[in-house]
Amino acid sequence: MTNLFQRIALALSYIKGPQVVDWVAQKSHETVFKVFGNAQANPPTPVRYNDDDEALWNEFVDQFAWAFKFVDTAAAKQAYVDLSKLL
User: What is the 3-state secondary structure (H, E, C) of the chain?
Assistant: First the structure.
């Protein structure tokens, strides 16, 4: 897929769940603003990337990796169970 903006939109469409919905919404908005700018912002956000700019995709991949690299759902669930036992 040569349109990297669409590639990001497709990737975000596969990321689902109540724990990630805010992250997905944030990245969706950020990506739109990076490609199209935001004239309504104060100060206005300029266009940073073309929709086929490889740096746009690389930045998304880096942000995805950073956001989910440290997530250990099994550890989080175990911590919740352990805390529940203390009550």
Answer: CCCHHHHHHHHHHHCCCCCCHHHHHHHHHHHHHHHHCECCCCCCECCCCCCCCHHHHHHHHHHHHHHHHCCCHHHHHHHHHHHHHHC
